[in-house]
Amino acid sequence: MDALGQLRSLAGGLVVSCQAREGNPLHGPVFMAAMAQAAMLGGAVGIRADGVEDISAIAAAVGSDVPIMGIFKVKQPDGSLFITPTAESARKVIDAGAKLEALDGTRRDRPGGESLRQVVEAIHAAGGMALADCGTIEHARYSLECGVDAIGSTMSGYTPDSVKTDGPDFSLIEAMAKLNPAPVFAEGRVWTREDARMALDLGASFVVVGTAITNPTAITERFVAAMRGTSGE
């Protein structure tokens, strides 16, 4: 299945983000591949994963026809992360087995100096599809101008010009769905089945869920916080 076919196959489904940072007991390609297999057995239509090693292991475990939204996180000097900032990082992820490439869809300067349009063009030249992680409707419009193939709410609450909500940014999801014709994916703070259903009802093509499914530490913290009467955030 080519990249366009994989993107279309996500419609109406759940993509599970299988990521674990250093320090997490589940960090590493062996654990992420197992997590991805478990997600697919549960009915997921695709996987989101970070880095060449994890993506390669996941692709080998779930098969080449399973859509993988690949990313390449680069740590900034201030400790923040930038998602797939360069054409080179995008090509590495595609070569590892991810035909769907998620990348930062904001206007901020990209490490390496390339423009968003240049990175999108490199993704297309390598046979992939570009999926923009956005934080505002302005980011979404800009990303579409740069030629991306899908837009998502991933960065909402993580940029200076967006507000972090307790749950998904439903307002942004609904607004992006009206931009047509690019598919919209809902991602970020999707905690419940009801959240995921609501995102689809508001026009999202598919939903990406990570922490609420694949981060036992965070899930446990939320239970403990609720039992203690604190927010858990």
What labels describe this entry?
233 residues; single chain; globular; 10 helices; two-stranded antiparallel ribbon; alpha/beta; 40% helix; 8-stranded parallel β-barrel; 10 strands
3D structure, described in words:
This protein has 233 residues and is α/β, with parallel strands linked by helices. It is built from ten helices and ten strands. The strands form two sheets. It has an eight-stranded parallel β-barrel, surrounded by eight helices.
Strand arrangement in the largest pleated sheet: 1-2-3-6-7-8-9-10
Mean pLDDT: 95
Count of helical segments? 10
The coarse silhouette is globular
Based on secondary structure, the structural category is alpha/beta
Uncertain regions: pLDDT < 50 for 5+ in a row? none
Order of helices and strands: HEHEHEEEHEHEHEHEHEHH
* Rg calc: 16 Å
Per DSSP E runs of 2 or more residues, the count of β-strands stands at 10
Strand content: 15-25%
Task: Give a nutshell description of this structure.
Helices cover 40% and strands 17% of the residues.
Helix/strand layout:
Layout: H1 3-9, E1 14-17, H2 29-41, E2 46-50, H3 52-62, E3 68-71, E4 73-75, E5 81-83, H4 87-96, E6 100-104, H5 116-125, E7 129-133, H6 137-145, E8 150-152, H7 170-177, E9 184-187, H8 193-201, E10 206-209, H9 211-214, H10 216-228
Parallel strand pairs: 1-2, 1-10, 2-3, 3-6, 6-7, 7-8, 8-9, 9-10
Antiparallel strand pairs: 4-5
